[in-house]
Amino acid sequence: MNSQNNLFDSLLPPPDLPDGMFYRQKALVGNEDALYAALSAILAVAPPAQARTRGGGLTSAAITNCGHFGWWSDAKGYRYQARRPDNGKPWPPIPNIFFDTVERVMSDTPWPDFKPDSCLINFYGAGAKMGLHQDRDEKDLSQPILTICLGDDAIFMVGGFSRTDKATSFVVSSGDVLIMGGASRMRFHGIRKVYSGTGSLENLSGRYSLTFRKAF
Ligand code: FE
User: Fold this and answer.
1) Residue 139 has what pLDDT?
2) Distance 2 CA to ligand 1 centre (A)
3) Which of 39, 173, 178, 180 is the most exposed place for a label (fewest CB within 10 A)?
4) What's the 7 CA to ligand 1 centre distance in angstroms?
5) Is the pTM of this model over 0.70?
6) pLDDT tens per residue across span 123-140
7) What H or E segment, with its residue span, contains residue 41?
8) How far is the CA of 180 from the centre of ligand 1 (A)?
9) Sheet with 189-195, side-by-side order of all strands
10) Once rounded to an integer, what is the mean pLDDT over residues 95-115?
């Protein structure tokens, strides 16, 4: 067994996740090509770009959005906005295949009627990561956030309610779904590492996360 297998063995999903957190491993395997085709149409009109942070740096992941609102960051801070920063146009709409997938995945959770108005799309190329953070820019924090993983494997971290709380890490792969709502909605979370070249989707190198939110 090589060292990567040993590492992966130690990064299996925890048997019991905290209340409000759902991990649906491989839930969308078989649907990934269709999801990626819809995603590619979005990327063609709204290509991801690294966003400027308030501190003056750039986000490690490249960002774009679809939906009525898109999350963006610049020197003034973070916000949802109805218009794209690059050309002032609306973001591309959320395609029906995304809505249908969200509805299906949510049907047996406490939020079967979840209807996102925003999908933040993060692209993780080689070396990209996302530090521990809370998603707190949405108006109604009783609404969950649902993430679909496409492409390369990554190490997802989920911690507590303070940045310094110990975080649990496990590997998420293409076709996996994560939901954080209820008592887990404000848990710190992030992406520690992406394993470049581990994805198996044709024409996709890197990792995309599609994170569905209700911004307003
Ligand atoms: Fe987040």
Assistant:
1) 97
2) 32
3) 173
4) 24
5) yes
6) 999 999 999 999 999 999
7) helix 32-45
8) 9
9) 130-133, 189-195, 153-158, 168-172
10) 98
